[in-house]
Model the fold of this input.
Amino acid sequence: MKDIEFGKKLYELRTQNNLTQRYVAYELEVTDKAVSKWEMGKSKPDIDKLKLLSTLYNVSLDELLEVTREKDVNISKIVLTGGPCAGKTTALNWINNYFSQRGYAVLFVPETATELIINGVSPTSCSKVYDFQQYNLRLQKIKEQIFEDAAKTMNNSKVLIVCDRGVLDSKAYVKDVEFKRLLKEYGTTETKERDSYDAVFHLVSAAKGKEEAYTLANNAARTEGIEDARKLDDKIINAWTGHPHFRVIDNSTDFEQKLERLLKEIASFLGEPEPYEIERKFLIKYPNVKELENMPNCTKVDITQTYLKSDDETERRVRARGIDGDYLYYLTEKRKVSNIKRVEVERKLTQNEYLKLLMDADNDLHTIRKTRYCLTENNQYFEIDLYPEWKNQAIMEIELSSEDDEIKPPKCIEVIKDVTEEEEYKNYEMAKKMPKEKRLSK
Done:
């Protein structure tokens, strides 16, 4: 088991016994920071301390040691999506070769819609497109669960599940109200389905920028002409906009370089060699909220962010992320490498795990609440954060694959200045004391 999982177990045992880190540190004659590092997975106690912990937590030493003997399987589930004739088939082969060589067991969930269509179940053979999408959703969910269950049984320590399209792709083929009804009938929500995947990578259709390469010949289920392919590509991008880790791979290079960029994005997400986050941050004038909410390529989410006690080297926080009471929860740990580059590790939490971690909140820092608008434009993914304390300005962020990437701000956004290296605009600094809004120059 990874150190972070062992740390999670230590945290659970301590909280189950209603003990504080300070009390445990006192009983074991160590510092608070030592206990914190154990629970964060940064280090492990030696055998003598483990014996004391087993007594303190009312478990046998064998039970405690058994935690460290559990099979360590790190499973990541991503979506590879895109418009018609985007190169997904070739990309899947590249992903398999690249990550298999790096020690991953790579599993592929085949494209469900294509499977149905080539075997006689299509939008035209069904009485309604809605019926076809119902069958598509049901089969997609069953397949994903089977692959996830299989991944847990594997001997490999790293498993990558690649879904050839995901649940949210269906949103591009039906009206919004129909898609909501479809999910409601299945007993789920758009937030849960979208964010159930760890990351989403969209390959732009050749119909947008590489028209000479567009063809219907290599996919029996494809029927779209170039103009329809462009519209469908936009709809699929819009459907996935709002995911915490969404990347669009365009046709600005030749096809081989396009796939190399895709592999680089996936590798960066997986933390190969380390999970770097390259981010730029801008102070912007307060946007027209109604305009943003009416844009099909923009999705609103609410975020509540609470910082946890940690050492000086690492920033730890928990987040509730969602809309209208439908939330998912995350634990994030960040370590600064440079002013715009950080090592970031994030994992999903259950609601109970989230509530337990809130007990370790750093009371010297305020909880950050903000409304985020996720906007996909110019094949770039922007996050616009509106804080309730600010009335005339906001923050816009973008994650990059390279520090040299060119940024093309959305037309509806007026940038005041780049604040990437200004500490006062970082959420952690804001949590110390929400800064008063600066008067904007006219």
